[in-house]
Design goal:
Layout: H1 3-11, H2 29-44, H3 50-60, H4 66-69, H5 78-81, E1 103-108, E2 111-114, E3 119-120, E4 123-129, E5 132-136, E6 141-142, E7 146-154, E8 157-162, E9 167-170, E10 173-175, E11 178-181, E12 193-201, E13 204-209, H6 218-260
Parallel strand pairs: 1-4, 2-5, 3-6, 4-7, 5-8, 7-12, 8-13, 9-12, 10-12, 11-13
């Protein structure tokens, strides 16, 4: 090809709107969680053994594109591996008052702790810089199955504790530091899944089950929370109704009192 042909080709406009193949699309957190749920179901019914499940889960959270995710469920039944949103487990439903906001725990030359009885959001961001962060989920109320903890430790420490009957997974790394997650696979179908990722630079990130701590019955927890929320809403509506009723009576009294005068 001569120089004039090359010059003409260079002057032609470049098509920047060329569609991207589905396999090349970037995978989202929701896509990875959906594939992880399919694999969890396959483990529960015996289609995968624990070793195969662990290997595939590790690849799921390392996947960058949809093309890397699809082969991980290709050999599972069509109904299990079909694309698209999957229904949530029966124990989980819409959160009262809407989705919980992300929880941010930051410790810079200080300490930050979250523990006790609290509603666990779907995403927790923990940052420790010359400080320490402690996250204790052993008494938490899980209102969604997938919980992601992004942990960053720089010359600091992030310590995470979960109940023994919760699934715990990891995809983090240490750079001249320690990133240690004691992975655990729960045998309970409705158990929450806590995924810890991030990195430790000259610091430490540690996550493991807390021995002797078990998550109470999930459905009872959710039922209690929703019942309390519904009662609160009912009380608010009753209070507003009584307030409007008193206002109407007051206006009625003023009107009829003025006419008699």
């Amino acid at each position: 090809m001569d120089e004039s042909s090359l010059a003409k080709r260079a002057q032609q406009p470049v098509n920047l709107t060329k569609p991207v193949a589905e396999a090349e699309l970037r995978a989202s957190d929701a896509d990875r969680d959906r594939i992880a749920e399919i694999l969890r179901e396959a483990l529960a019914v015996g289609r995968l053994d624990a070793e195969e499940h662990s290997e595939r889960i590790d690849l799921v959270y390392r996947a960058k594109t949809m093309g890397e995710l699809e082969p991980l469920v290709r050999d599972l039944p069509a109904e299990a591996g079909a694309p698209g949103p999957r229904p949530a487990a029966a124990a989980y439903g819409p959160e009262p008052g809407g989705a919980l906001p992300d929880q941010n725990l930051v410790a810079i030359f200080s300490a930050s702790t979250r523990k006790g009885r609290w509603r666990v959001p779907g995403r927790i961001n923990a940052v420790a810089v010359f400080g320490s962060v402690e996250i204790d989920l052993t008494e938490g109320i899980f209102q969604q199955q997938q919980v992601r903890i992004n942990a960053t430790s720089i010359f600091g420490s992030v310590e995470i504790r979960v109940p023994e009957n919760v699934t715990l997974r990891s995809s983090g790394s240490g750079v001249l530091g320690s990133f240690e997650v004691e992975t655990n696979e729960s045998l309970e179908a409705d158990a929450p899944v806590v995924h810890v990722n991030g990195y430790a630079v000259l610091g430490s990130v540690e996550a493991k089950p807390k021995r002797g701590k078990w998550l109470r019955d999930l459905r009872d927890d959710l039922r209690d929370v929703r019942r309390a929320w519904q009662e609160q809403r009912r009380d608010e509506r009753r209070s507003a109704h009584e307030h409007h009723r008193d206002e109407r009576r007051e206006r009625h009294g003023r009107l009829h009192g003025g006419r008699r005068d």
